[in-house]
Amino acid sequence: MVAVVTGASGGIGSAVALRLARDGYKIAVNYNSDERAALDVVEKIKSIGGQAAAIKADISREEDVIRLFNEAERLGDLEVLVNNAGVSYIGLLQDMALEDIEKVIGVDLLGAVLCSKEAAKEMVKRKRGCIINVSSMWGEVGASCEAVYSACKAGVIGLTKALAKELGPSGIRVNCVSPGVINTKMNAELNEETLKELREETPLERIGAPEDVAEAVAFLASGRASFITGQVLPVNGGFTV
To answer: What's the predicted TM-score (pTM) here?
Structure first.
């Protein structure tokens, strides 16, 4: 069983990769720039008796995505795809350069589309598989100064619901996790005052950990979720806007 995890060198991605490895998956650890972090994830997986390979690919480029899945095939049959890779931009929409807009859309939305397309080819042949998309609570309610990011994450939710209907007859489940505020590099730019406010607004009164998201992904990938598809699972500590 092989699981492809995009953006697996980051906080949520690495936690997901390790959690799925504990469930017996061989992990294709995708990364784009942080090779050292990706190799560290591979070593951690090997240290617990698992198998993994770090695969560099820019998921906003179709040729890279095709190569990613071709290399992942060396590990075995693809069972799970986790579309986790993401980038953000914090600032007013009118201040965003076209280059910044294209980068966010390319990774956060187009990347999920391209990877799902490639994974579906193999999964449909075998009439089984599972795609799990990582959205965000901002994709559900929108975030001021993160308009493009919010739009992309909303698109990921739409992709999830549409693909669940499209691939369901082939026995493929497609679900989505929607994290709240999680302790990752993406949120490292937030100052302590902002983090304090976010903790206070969260009923569980804490910032989420990458492992919280990883547990939700592992559940959706497992047989325990065999009759669940087209759903969005919030992992946000009860945070509402």
So the answer is: 0.94
